[in-house]
């Protein structure tokens, strides 16, 4: 197993200030993964990213928007392009920091597509809300879309992107909504209850790409069993039908029960189970070629470091035992970095990851699943009403 992990402390420069998207969550993830030996495993290559070149950013964003990102931090009265808002405040060196995140995601996909490594991750990435000409949802540049565009330019013909974030992956969907070479699948809390207000099951793609945008909107309160039921009712069948060359996943962990910005109820154990399921699908369908990005997650001490350390452990070929304790030295570091936060003592929440399969005539989760299946399964030759498909 060869895995490229993108990391440089300079990535912490994507810092919106007093804001839910706190870069300490990435710092604490790297520290926890290092303490547990994940970063020192055989075959793991730490990759220091370079900023994305302007031509790579222009594959996804408009020239006018790039100019705005470079200009806005110098104007305290700036208005427009989604910048200088509560969600997307401007900050010093915003263009440079955002370009570096994009460069990290480009480095990750290039490592895998070239065959240098089988897997890769940029946990500082996953900024999936940014649009062509506007910032949105804490995201300035859409590093995921930039990385996917780079893969297409290198000759990729079938890419599958699965978004686990509690919020709809709207920016990535929008970037490839009419491109049949990219399948985007997003599982998220219903847009009736949560930002960004998109991601209904009827959003399926357009202009010859119908069926390559897939959305599974879940009701507030869905926990491990309900989320995993929905995932397994939709994702494996569609990926098997689509036969991607490479699997990309945005692994936002704001689906957690204690996350302050949303209303799903997953545990770290349920999130770990989703990573294990994705690994199996990558092994089955893409020869193990798998690229992961970070994303949302606002339990910056109690959730994100544990969830993403489980992700990195899975990605590098050996999942961690959930029963292990967090190392004393990491606990002390976390308490030093955020003194008021609750520091977790173990890598588990004690969650139960068993679930019953999807069935017709079930609860609100089953109804959401059926709506998604009926919207897209027939476009891939699958029977939406047959649980075997």
Automatic annotation (TrEMBL):
It comes from the Bacteria. Belongs to the histone deacetylase family. This is Acetoin utilization protein AcuC. Pfam families: Hist_deacetyl. It comes from Fodinicola feengrottensis. Keywords: Acetoin catabolism. Residues 19-314 form the Histone deacetylase domain. The keyword Transcription does not apply. Pathway: Ketone degradation; acetoin degradation. InterPro entries: AcuC, HDACs, His_deacetylse_dom, His_deacetylse_dom_sf, Ureohydrolase_dom_sf.
């Amino acid at each position: 197993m060869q895995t490229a992990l993108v990391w440089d402390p300079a990535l912490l420069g994507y810092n919106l200030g007093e804001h839910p998207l706190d870069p300490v969550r990435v710092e604490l993830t790297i520290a926890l993964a290092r303490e547990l030996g994940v970063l020192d495993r055989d075959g793991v290559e730490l990759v220091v990213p370079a900023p994305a070149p302007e031509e790579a950013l222009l594959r996804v964003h408009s020239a006018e928007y790039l100019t705005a990102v470079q200009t806005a931090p110098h104007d305290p009265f700036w208005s427009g392009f989604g910048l200088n808002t509560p969600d997307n405040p401007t900050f010093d060196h915003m263009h440079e920091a955002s370009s570096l995140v994009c460069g990290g995601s480009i480095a990750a996909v290039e490592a895998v597509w070239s065959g240098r490594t089988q897997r890769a991750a940029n946990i500082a990435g996953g900024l999936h809300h940014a649009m062509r000409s506007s910032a949105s949802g804490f995201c300035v540049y859409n590093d995921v879309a930039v990385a996917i565009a780079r893969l297409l330019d290198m000759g990729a013909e079938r890419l599958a992107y699965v978004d686990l974030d509690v919020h709809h992956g709207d920016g990535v969907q929008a970037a490839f909504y009419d491109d049949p070479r990219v399948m985007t699948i997003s599982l998220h809390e219903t847009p009736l209850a949560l930002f960004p207000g998109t991601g209904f099951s009827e959003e399926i793609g357009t202009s010859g790409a119908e069926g390559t945008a897939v959305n599974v909107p879940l009701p507030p309160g869905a926990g491990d069993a309900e989320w995993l039921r929905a995932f397994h009712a939709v994702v494996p069948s569609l990926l098997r039908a689509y036969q991607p060359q490479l699997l990309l996943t945005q692994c936002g962990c704001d689906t957690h029960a204690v996350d302050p910005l949303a209303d799903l109820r997953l545990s770290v154990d349920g999130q770990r189970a989703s990573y294990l399921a994705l690994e199996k699908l990558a092994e089955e369908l893409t020869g193990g070629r798998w690229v992961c990005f970070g994303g949302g997650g606002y339990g910056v001490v109690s959730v994100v470091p544990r969830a993403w350390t489980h992700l990195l452990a899975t990605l590098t070929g050996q999942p961690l035992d959930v029963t292990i304790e967090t190392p004393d030295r990491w606990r002390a570091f976390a308490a030093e970095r955020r003194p008021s936060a609750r520091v977790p003592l173990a890598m588990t929440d004690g969650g139960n990851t068993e679930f019953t399969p999807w069935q017709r005539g079930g609860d609100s989760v089953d109804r959401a699943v059926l709506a998604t299946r009926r919207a897209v399964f027939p476009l891939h030759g699958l029977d939406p009403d047959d649980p075997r498909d």
